[in-house]
Give the backbone structure.
Amino acid sequence: MALVTVTIDNREMEVEEGSTVLEAARKAGIAIPTLCALPEIGHTPGACRVCVTKVEGQRALVASCVFPVSKGMVIHTNSERVRKARKMVVELLLADHPSECTTCVRNGGCELQKVAEQVGVREVRFATTFPPKESVIDTSSPSIVRDPRKCILCQRCVTVCEQIQTVSVLTPAWRGSNSRVVPTFNLPLGETNCVNCGQCVLVCPVGALYEKDQTEEVWAALSDPLKHVVVQEAPAIRAALGEEFGVPAGSLVTGKMVAALRRLGFDQVFDTNFTADLTIMEEGSELLKRVKEGGTLPLITSCSPGWIKFCEHFYPDLVDHLSTCKSPQQMFGSMAKTYYAKFAGVDPENIVVVSVMPCTAKKFEAGRPEMNDSGYRDVDVVLTTRELARMIREAGIDFVNLSDEEPDPPMGEYTGAATIFGATGGVMEAALRTAYAVVTGESLGNLDIAPVRGLDGVKEASVSVPGLGEVKVAVAHGLGNARKIMDAVRSGVADYHFIEIMACPGGCVGGGGQPIPTNRQIRAMRAAALYLDDGSVQQNRQSHENASVKKAYETFLKEPLGHTSHKLLHTRYTERGSDVPHKGQKAIAK
C-alpha cells in the first residue's frame, strides 16, 4: 500500500494511505482515548466522539477513528481545544451514567473509568437533562444480563453481533436523546435469536452487558453439609484464569487452579478434560459409523452450545448433520450422577455438579430441558472464568503463590488431546488422532495436525486413513465463518466428512466468559499454552489412551455408542427457526 507523509503533533512521519488518524497516531506512539473503536475487527461507528482531534483545514474537530489520513495532513492530538472537547464528551457520558462504580461488575476494569482518568475528569459539570433511560435490567437470558442504564451507545456489541457472529440481535434504535441499543424488535434478550455466545460482553466497555452471576448458588451449595459438591473445569480455563490475578496471558495455571478449587471447599475436583476424551471416543465412533454405513455427512461437532443454538435457529434443516454427542460439560454431569455416584457411594440426589467454563452459552446449555438423562439435571451451576476468579478473591486465596495440585480420580485423568479442545481445531485434531488409531490399530506418524491449527477463519485438511481413503475435514470458529461453511453444506458443494465449528473466535480460549480483554493476540497465546500442555506436559496424547476412560467403559459404559452411553452421553436438538425463538419449536429426536 502506498505511503503518505503526515505531521502529527509537529512530528513528520509516513503512514499507509487510507489508514485513520487514530491508526497513524498509534503508530507514532500517541495514545488517543476511544470507547467505540474495535481495531481488531477493522470497523468502528465513530459513535462515542471521545477520540476527537484537530486536523488543519477542517472547521470542526474530527473523530480520529473514522477520519482517513491524506498526503500533507497536519494533525493536532493534544491542543487545548482537543483536550477540553474530550473532557466534555466524557463528562456528558458520565452525567447520563449511573454512579454505581463500587458495586458494578466492571469496577476496576471499566473503560469509561479509565478514559475519565486519562482525559483528566475530576468533576461532572452537567446534570442529567435527557429523559431517563430504561430502568429495568433485562435478566430474561439464561446467560447474559443487559443493563440499558449503563449503555454508552458505543455500538461495539452491535458490531460484533452483526459482523463477526452474524446473529444480529442487537441494533441501534431511535434518535437523538432517545437513542438506545436494543435487542431485535425491542424484545427481552431471552426472547430473541441470541445464541448466548457472550462476545458482546467481551467488547462492552462498561457494565451494560455481563454474565448472569451464579456465584451465590455455588457458595450456598458449598455451605450445605448435605450436599456433595463436585467441580469440573474446561480445558481453556487453565490457560486464562491466571490473567485475572496478573499472570501473563498464555500461562498454564492448571495446578494452581486445582489447588484454589480445593480451598474453596469442593468435595471433589475433577476435570472436563476427562469427558473431552470420552467425547472423542463417542464422536469418533459416530464418525466412523456414518462413513462406513452411509450416514448423514458431513458430521459436525456438537461441543459448542452457542454454535448448536445458531444451527437450530439459522440452519434447522441441517441439524441431522450435528453429532448426537453431548458436549464434554454435559457428559461430565451425566457421568457424575451415575458412574461417579456409584463409585463413591453417594446418593445422586445430593450431588451438585458445578462447571467452570470459558463460555456464557454453557449456562444456557446446562438448562436445556433434555439434559437430564441420568434422572437428574446433568449440570447444576455454570460459572465463567471471571466468576471463579471473583470467588477466589472473595475467599482471600493467594492464587499466584499456591502450590500445584492434581485433580481427583476417577474423573480427573486426561490426555493431551483433551487439552487442545480449548483451541479452534483442537476437537478435530483429537478426533482424527483417535479415529486413525481405531481404524488402523496404530498411531498417526505425526500427531500434530498443523493445517487445523491457528486463527484462520476457515481451515481445511485431509488425512489418508487406510481402509477409508481420504478423510476431508474443515474447521471454523466464529459464527460468521460457520455461516460460510454451512451455506456450502446447504448448497451441496461441501465435500467434507467431518466439520468442527466453535461459536467463539479462537474457540473456547476466546469464549464470552473469559477474562477481559480478550483479543486476537491473547487468544493465540492461550491456544499456544494448550498446545504446550499437549506436546510436552501430558504423557498420553490420544483420547483412547486415557486409562480412566478405558476403565469407565469396562466397568460401566461397556462400549462407545452402546446402550448405556447412548442413553447418558447423547442428546437431541430443537428446530427453532430464525424468527422468534420458543414459538413453534419442534424437537428432533436423535
